[in-house]
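Attaching the record inline, Q. Sequence:
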Amino acid sequence: MEKELQQEEATTYKSEEAAVEVEETSEQMQSVQTEEQTEEQTEENNELTAAKKRIAELEEKLQELENRYLRLHADFDNFRRRTRLDFEAAEKYRAQSLVTDILPALDNFERALKVEAEDDKTKSILQGMEMVYRSLIDALKKEGVEVIEAVGKPFDPHLHQAVMQVEDSNYEPNTVVEEFQKGYKLKDRVIRPSMVKVSQ
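Structure, as predicted:
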């Protein structure tokens, strides 16, 4: 009986030892699992931080690219608008250099037409010159060339070039009294201002 009691005690002792061992093992396993979880969480946190940093970098790059795109788009729009305006101006004033070259010839025609004809031969030559002069004037009008009105008009420094001033009671002050050389406009651009005498 005593032997049985000893055996029972030994079994209980072994069971308790086994229980303690199991508990220690369980604690160790929990400790290992906790460490592993902590490591995993740290790793996840590091990955999350790195991902957030990368997202911030990419967003910054995207913002830079968007700004660059908008600037390029605006530059291109400005370039296209400037090109269109330049083309329109070139088309509108395409005859300017030709008109500028022809004006001295018109001046010479006008001076020649003021000559008094003494015989029929001179009269016929003057008539022919006047026909050529009228043809030139008509061709220039088709291109948008106009003579600047001067005599009797108020002096305008954009349209007239004053070369003399005179006191004249027949005219209001600052009025064009006489025109020495005709001025011309091509559409809305002054090609040559009128050379005039102005009342004081």
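Strands lie at 145-148, 160-166, 176-181, 183-186, 189-192, 194-199. Helices lie at 2-92, 96-113, 120-142.

More tomorrow.
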